[in-house]
């Protein structure tokens, strides 16, 4: 009988700490519902003390998700723990994750606290969190660079104080697999009360080793892994959920554990997260990249056709590939539309929002005829992107074109603070001309850091999903837009990024000093 490996997803917290990946409350709810469908055990829904918006998002996720435990992050300080405790209150099962740094460099340079003070604070934080829930996780931040004896001391004290999960973060992605596995083994064998808590791995991917380090920890006895969809996360990201889960599932001969994950939901979850955050998935990414199951060279194809296992170690359909089938069409009615959205975990606050989405669906079905789940997700993502609260800019009309031998040009009409304005520009390409025309009207002072287009489904009639990353005075935002016309999608993404630059709240980072 295999032991259960708890899958703790932190896409909505550590994932959101990627520059430009911030999500709205509605987007977080959509992702959380999909994570629940994926059968993730614990969803870290955010850092409630970061801002009122973050608090509300965690609270909303805790209210709608029923099957997964909802976790809120808190530094080891009173306000964070109280906010996390209040935010997870509506959850069927709620957890507080509190942490404090334990490496010499973090204690000295960031916290300016002595080791004794850190132990005392950790114990206090765990006890305070237990006032709100019996399910308390404690992390010694930067454990990967902490001294073993001190780690043992602080963890033993945290377990005595009531921590039920002990998470070991390699915060800066410095460890290598053998070392991280040994660390986990040493902690489990040296700490006298280690059997009173589940030990967990939280690895960052700075050296590209997050999945390997997490697997080494599992081999050494960790029974929870913290991960994110598509490996999203600060800097080079976190352990990719899909890779970790499929490694454990595919190599059952090597691991004494299994997960509850419904692997058939992996691809849909990956696409939802990349659509909402604008972080595209590279084609050669394991499990969820477009080429992950594509056999191009003739010799491989021949082998696969004769006997699948010659070149395939997993079945594409087991992670959700090729289940992409037409779900709605030109003649589908409003109730079919509504019920398919409900199956995808998408609900609208008002009947008017549903009606507006239905109108957009009909427009799309006229252009595209066959509508897939991916189209519906993109349509809803686009809808929420174009409806930011307090938006200053909105696209009214676009006329862009290119003729061989002439400079491409664009004329854009925008709604700016309620006033319609029009400007034209030429550029190196039509997208460039469109962005220049927009800039003539808004004069944003922001710089364009990244621009990418991907198709939502196959075929030239596919919706194009465009992502634009912009930076202004150190703030980074990602804008999204989708449309069957990629120039329109690009204009929408650019405008969405401008609106986000205007409206994004400043929030505190959990790993900055208090
Ligand atoms: O990487 C890290 O150390 C973290 C902690 C907050 C657990 O994300
Ligand atoms: Zn982290």
UniProtKB/TrEMBL annotation:
It catalyses: 3-methyl-2-oxobutanoate + acetyl-CoA + H2O = (2S)-2-isopropylmalate + CoA + H(+). Residues 394-514 are annotated as: Regulatory domain. Its cofactor is Mn(2+). Mn(2+) binds at residues 14, 202, 204, 238. The keyword Disulfide bond does not apply. This is 2-isopropylmalate synthase. Gene3D superfamilies: 1.10.238.260, 3.30.160.270, Aldolase class I. Pathway: Amino-acid biosynthesis; L-leucine biosynthesis; L-leucine from 3-methyl-2-oxobutanoate: step 1/4. GO terms for cellular component: cytosol. Belongs to the alpha-IPM synthase/homocitrate synthase family. LeuA type 1 subfamily. Homodimer. It comes from Hydrogenovibrio marinus. GO terms for molecular function: 2-isopropylmalate synthase activity; acetyl-CoA C-acetyltransferase activity; manganese ion binding. Catalyzes the condensation of the acetyl group of acetyl-CoA with 3-methyl-2-oxobutanoate (2-ketoisovalerate) to form 3-carboxy-3-hydroxy-4-methylpentanoate (2-isopropylmalate). It holds the Pfam family HCS_D2. InterPro entries: 2-IPM_HCS-like, 2-isopropylmalate_synth_dimer, AIPM/Hcit_synth_CS, Aldolase_TIM, LeuA/HCS_post-cat, LeuA_allosteric_dom_sf, LeuA_bact_synth, PYR_CT. Its EC number is 2.3.3.13. One of its GO terms (biological process) is L-leucine biosynthetic process. The lineage of its organism: Bacteria, Pseudomonadati, Pseudomonadota, Gammaproteobacteria, Thiotrichales. It is an enzyme of class 2 (transferase). Keywords: Acyltransferase, Amino-acid biosynthesis, Branched-chain amino acid biosynthesis, Cytoplasm, Leucine biosynthesis, Manganese, Metal-binding, Transferase. SUPFAM superfamilies: 2-isopropylmalate synthase LeuA, allosteric (dimerisation) domain, Aldolase.
């Amino acid at each position: 009988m295999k032991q259960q490996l708890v899958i703790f997803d932190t896409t909505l917290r550590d994932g959101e700490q990627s520059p430009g990946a911030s999500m709205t409350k509605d987007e977080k709810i959509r992702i959380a519902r999909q994570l629940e469908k994926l059968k993730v055990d614990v969803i870290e829904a955010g850092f409630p003390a970061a801002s009122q918006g973050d608090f509300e998002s965690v609270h909303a996720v805790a209210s709608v998700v029923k099957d997964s435990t909802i976790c809120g992050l808190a530094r080891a300080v009173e306000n964070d723990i109280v906010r996390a405790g209040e935010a997870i209150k509506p959850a069927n099962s709620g957890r507080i994750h509190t942490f404090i740094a334990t490496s010499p460099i973090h204690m000295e340079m960031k916290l300016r606290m002595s080791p004794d003070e850190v132990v005392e604070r950790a114990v206090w934080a765990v006890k305070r969190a237990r006032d709100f829930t019996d399910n308390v996780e404690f992390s010694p931040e930067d454990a990967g660079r902490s001294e073993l004896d001190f780690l043992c001391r602080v963890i033993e004290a945290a377990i005595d104080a009531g921590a039920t999960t002990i998470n070991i973060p390699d915060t800066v992605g410095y460890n290598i697999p053998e070392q991280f596995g040994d660390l986990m083994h040493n902690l489990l064998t040296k700490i006298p009360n280690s059997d009173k808590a589940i030990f967990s791995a939280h690895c960052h991917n700075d050296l590209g080793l997050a999945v390997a380090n997490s697997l080494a920890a599992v081999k050494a006895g960790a029974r929870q892994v913290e991960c994110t969809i598509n490996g999203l996360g600060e800097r080079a990201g976190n352990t990719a959920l899909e890779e970790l889960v499929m490694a454990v599932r595919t190599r059952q001969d090597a691991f004494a554990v299994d997960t509850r994950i419904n692997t058939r939901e992996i691809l849909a979850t990956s696409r939802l997260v990349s659509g909402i955050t604008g972080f595209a998935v590279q084609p050669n990414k394991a499990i969820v990249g477009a080429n992950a199951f594509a056999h191009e060279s003739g010799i491989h194809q021949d082998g696969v056709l004769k006997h699948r296992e010659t070149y395939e170690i997993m079945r594409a359909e087991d992670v959700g590939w090729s289940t992409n089938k037409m779900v709605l069409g030109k003649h589908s009615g409003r109730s079919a539309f509504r019920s398919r959205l409900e199956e995808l975990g998408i609900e609208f606050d008002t009947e008017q929002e549903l009606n507006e989405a239905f109108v957009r669906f009909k427009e799309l079905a006229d252009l595209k005829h066959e509508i897939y789940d991916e189209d519906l997700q993109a349509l809803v993502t686009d809808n929420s992107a174009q409806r930011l609260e307090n938006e200053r800019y909105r696209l009214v009309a676009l006329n862009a074109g290119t003729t061989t031998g002439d400079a491409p040009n664009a004329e854009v009409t925008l709604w700016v603070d309620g006033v319609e304005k029009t400007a034209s520009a030429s550029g190196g390409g039509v997208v460039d001309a469109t962005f220049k025309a927009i800039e003539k009207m808004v004069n944003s002072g922001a710089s364009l850091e990244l621009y990418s287009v991907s198709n939502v489904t196959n075929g030239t009639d596919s919706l194009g999903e465009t992502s634009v990353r912009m930076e202004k005075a150190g703030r980074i935002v990602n804008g999204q837009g989708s449309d069957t016309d990629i120039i329109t999608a690009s204009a929408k993404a650019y405008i969405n990024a401008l609106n986000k630059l205007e409206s994004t709240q400043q929030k505190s980072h959990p790993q900055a000093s208090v």
